[in-house]
């Protein structure tokens, strides 16, 4: 059985948890606090970042994008109608473009700020960078999430799912990042009904249940967080 090293509110880890659940895989989940930089974890991934997938064979697959590609190569063909990557080259390019958008751009402009400042810092020592949240970073992230939400709404006004006619990695990556922001109550859902309706569809899937059950000790989620009907 594979092991997934993850941090519950690392959005890229959440993305891989969604992927694995959609593929019908149930790995052992090993929570990792990246800021602790444990020697054992650094041996698996010298970058010190989650997620990392450790196969039973001993193969180490680090990073959300790499894990997603690896799972498609090794399991995708056996998923028939549930494959998370399209068949055509052009459609696969579009999924990869949007993966980059959410796993990197959205993370750098929104999720990384909010999760670090509002969650991770609560558990980090001062030596590791813990302490009071940087309100300037939080304000910037709250502004940035607005235009990302509008972009999702723009895509969904023209497509059935974010990257096209079928659910793909792009939807799972976007929803994973928004789920972290939504826990904190920082998604302005009233600004774009189309994006909100899409997110409701994704978070209603069985693969989302474990994410909606995650809790930060001493910090309850926004009231609508686990409400499938908002």
Automatic annotation (TrEMBL):
Domain GST C-terminal residues, every copy: 88-221
Gene3D superfamilies tied to this protein: 1.20.1050.10, Glutaredoxin
InterPro entries per record: Glutathione-S-Trfase_C-like, Glutathione-S-Trfase_C_sf, Glutathione_S-Trfase, Glutathione_S-Trfase_N, GST_C, Thioredoxin-like_sf
Residue ranges constituting the GST N-terminal domain according to the UniProt record: 1-79
Pfam families found in the cross-reference section: GST_C_3, GST_N_2
Name of the gene encoding the protein in the UniProt record: fzlA
Any one GO MF annotation of this record: glutathione transferase activity
Descriptive protein name: FtsZ-localized protein A
Organism of derivation: Methylobacterium gregans
Single Gene Ontology BP annotation: glutathione metabolic process
Species classification: Bacteria, Pseudomonadati, Pseudomonadota, Alphaproteobacteria, Hyphomicrobiales
UniProt xrefs under CDD domains: GST_C_family, GST_N_family
Subunit structure and binding partners: Homodimer.
């Amino acid at each position: 059985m594979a092991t997934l090293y993850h941090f519950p509110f690392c959005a890229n880890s959440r993305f891989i948890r969604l992927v694995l659940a959609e593929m019908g895989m149930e790995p052992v989940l090993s929570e990792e606090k990246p800021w602790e930089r444990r020697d054992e974890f650094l041996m698996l991934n010298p970058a010190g970042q989650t997620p990392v997938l450790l196969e039973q064979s001993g193969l180490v697959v680090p990073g959300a994008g790499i894990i997603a590609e690896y799972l498609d190569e090794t399991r995708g063909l056996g998923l028939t109608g549930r494959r998370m990557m399209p068949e055509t080259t052009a459609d696969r390019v579009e999924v990869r473009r949007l993966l980059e958008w959410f796993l990197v751009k959205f993370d750098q402009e929104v999720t990384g700020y909010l999760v670090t400042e509002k969650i991770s810092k609560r558990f980090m020592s001062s030596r590791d960078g813990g302490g009071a949240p940087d309100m300037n970073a939080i304000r910037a992230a709250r502004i940035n999430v607005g235009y990302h939400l509008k972009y999702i709404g723009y895509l969904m006004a023209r497509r059935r799912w974010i990257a096209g006619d079928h659910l793909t990695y792009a939807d799972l990556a976007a929803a994973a990042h928004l789920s972290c922001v939504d826990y904190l109550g920082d998604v302005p859902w009233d600004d774009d009904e189309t994006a909100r309706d899409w997110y409701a569809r994704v978070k209603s899937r069985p693969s989302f249940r474990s994410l909606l059950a995650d809790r930060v000790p001493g910090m309850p989620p926004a009231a609508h967080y686990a409400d499938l009907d908002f």
